[in-house]
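User: Here's a chain of 250 residues. Predict its fold as tokens.
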Amino acid sequence: MNEEINLAGRPYIFRFRQNTDRTIEEIAENYIYFPDRESLNDPFDSSPDLVYLTKNPEATLKLYQLVSEGITDKAVKKHFDSKYDLDKLQEFAHEKVKDFILEFGVACFSMYYMNLPLWANYANDHKGVCLQFDSDINKDFFSVLGPVSYVEDLTKLEFSPIIEDSDMGKIFYRKAINWSYEKEVRLVKGFKGKANYNKRALRNVILGYNSDDDFRDKIVEAVNKNYEDVGVYKMEKPTKINKFTLTKIK
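Assistant: Prediction complete.
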């Protein structure tokens, strides 16, 4: 919409996509795909290597008791009790941290569309699109939306399988300081794959200045068929630093 296209910062968030059939499908079927952390382009992003299990003896003992008491088969329980002391159980739990992290899906957004590196990196050198959402329109879908914190030192975070207020959740919302230009806002789900949003949450679609006519026509067709009130714009190639011009297509 004309009055919204230049609004930035929450509740408005922006998602950069490449000029692919997948992008057309995402718009046509109003979904966002949530990949696991292995698909993220920063090898340290949400890495299980940056998590350590608490050394709190009481919490570790509770974990041991919880697992042991949950075993009803006598033979299995005997094997467990003979094989796992507290240290070995902690090692076992650490191995499961990676599996736990990989259960979550992560979708990335930015607070601004006026960011040339994001267009280059995530929209195939300005050939793709940027989608503007109003997260307030679909608060349930965007309920776990949070800004990424950029830090000088990615210190390890403490995790306890027993204590609810451990730092585990923070693993998805922090990155090294050299990524700060992205101004990222992140949405995390407890699953991987497609998730549909309320169509009204999509407000505008911005085509990159290198996008071709065929891709433009497919975007306009997808919007016309599936949305009542979504604007489509094309960015003109900038001629001045920090000066962006958009031409309305629809």
